[in-house]
Amino acid sequence: MTEQIEKVRRALVGRVVSDKMQNTVTVLVERRVKHELYGKVITRSAKYHAHVEEGGAAAGDLVEIEECRPISKTKSWRVAKVLEKARVI
After folding, report:
1. How many Å apart are CA 27 and CA 41, to the nearest integer?
2. Closest to 46 (Cα-Cα) out of 67, 5, 15
3. Among residues 63, 85, 43, 83, which one has the least CA distance to residue 24?
């Protein structure tokens, strides 16, 4: 009974669409689902506010976010890692 049981946290992959707040980024997560009746594949999207340390992620980066305790009213996710940096043209 002394071993620590680690909680399994939900993880999502998305693109950073805004980094204008302090220590917070807005991440757009898109998923493709099949329509129940018609069978057409449609894209569903959701935006999440995620906590990030200074200089961790910028707009356009592909990031993995994981669920955590509520940090503020709208923020209960944190950036786990940056998968791909945005290409600057």
Report:
1. 22
2. 15
3. 63
